[in-house]
Amino acid sequence: MASGSDIKDIVAVGAGKGGVGKSMVSMHLAVGLRRRGAAVGLLDADVYGPSIATLAGIADAQPSPSPTPGDAGTPRIRPFDAGGIKVMSMANFVAPGQAMIWRGPMVHGVVQQFLRDVDWGHLDYLVVDLPPGTGDVPLTLAQTVGVTGAVIVTTPQPLALADAMRAARMYAQLGIAILGVVENMSYFACPACGAEHDVFGRGGAARAAAEAGYPLLAEIPLDLALRANTDAARADDDFDRPADDPVAAAVAAMTDGVVEQVRQRRAAGPPPEPIAMHRPGPPAGNGGKPSHDR
Ligand SMILES: Nc1ncnc2c1ncn2[C@@H]1O[C@H](COP(=O)(O)OP(=O)(O)O)[C@@H](O)[C@H]1O
Ligand SMILES: [Mg+2]
User: Fold this and answer.
1) Residue 221 sits in which domain range?
2) Is the pLDDT of residue 82 over 80?
3) In a domain, 293, yes or no
4) Which residues contact 245 (CB under 8 A, 6 or more apart)?
5) Who surrounds ion ligand 2 at CB < 5 A?
6) 45 within some domain
7) Alpha-carbon distances of 138 from 28, 65, 89, 197, rounded to whole Å
8) Per the domain annotation, does 278 fall within a domain?
């Protein structure tokens, strides 16, 4: 592998559908891990709908070259700094609102560049916000780097769950372990009447996760302040709420669950190697170099 960055664990965040809160979960997971003292990167690999730049508050930042080139002197890009998290998103390379037309090979190329030609430096975790559904990006990810595991985000209704589980099966086929499932928009805690309304049929993800043998990491309620904080790049504020606040408890549980699942994967063996699929070239592996030397 190229580039000399040193990334311990890559955690992908995927979903069956768009709009279920995948980017919100990616951002909060990155913030949660950073708050636990880890060195964290956040890669927006949702090239079709990149929103991490906005959620991280770096939408207007301009890319700049890194002073340290990669292997063989290749120039590299410096990631953006978002409150101590290293962030890279396609959104910073195109004019706002510009339509991006991608062919499969272009997606493959840009995701590889994000992994190889960004000067990530040392990271304990690189959180990767995947595009929804199955497709090229998870395939490229699995071919380019060893992915420690994926977090599946879904809303509780059966149609969303079916797609989420389909995406999970694709990751598993690519050798990406499923770290667990986050049920988002689990219920609505009504500030006016105090009742919890199960808008989308709360608990669906818990049942689907149990059936598939995946841990349920968290149930995050629909919450007005969560939406406001997320979209204004204030994910930290959700962790700073009183500990008995359901959103604070859920994002903390999600972070702890991912840390624990990654720890268990690491205890069981080294992180997976990139896979070789559908392409000529050397078999799986990276030429004998340790896989954390990306
Ligand atoms: N639990 C939630 N409560 C309220 N708003 C939410 C919640 N989860 C996500 N949102 C909001 O819903 C919108 C879509 O979320 P986003 O993370 O962008 O979805 P995706 O990445 O899956 O397309 C965003 O405005 C986000 O802030
Ligand atoms: Mg998104």
Assistant:
1) 6-268
2) yes
3) no
4) none
5) 22-23, 51
6) yes
7) 21, 27, 16, 35
8) no
Instruction: Please give the angle made by the CA atoms of 204, 187 and 185, to the nearest 5 degrees.
Output: 75
**Tokens for 132?**
């929804």
Quote the pTM value. Answer: 0.92
| Token digits of residue 111 | 């995701």
Measure 138 CA to ligand 2 centroid, in angstroms.
Answer: 15
**Domain assignment of residue 290, yes or no:** no
| Distance from Cα 240 to the centre of ligand 2, integer Å | 23
Confidence of residue 232 (pLDDT cuts 50, 70, 90): very high
Q: What is the pLDDT of residues 184-226, one digit of tens each?
A: 999 998 888 989 999 998 899 999 999 999 999 999 999 999 9
d(CA 181, CA 96): 32
Q: Which residue's CA is the closest to the ligand 1 atom numbered 14?
A: 19
Q: Tell me how far the alpha carbon of residue 181 is from its chain's centroid.
A: 13
Task: Look up the CATH number of the domain holding residue 120.
Answer: 3.40.50.300
What burial class does residue 290 get, using C-beta atoms within 10 Å of its C-beta: 0-12 exposed, 13-18 middle, 19+ buried?
Answer: exposed
Instruction: Give me the helix-helix angle, 224-231 and 22-35, nearest 10°.
Output: 80
Domains held by the chain: number: 1
Residues β-bridged to residue 180: 151
Cα(16) to centroid(ligand 2), Å? 12
Give the CB-side neighbour count of residue 242, counting CA atoms within 13 A: 2
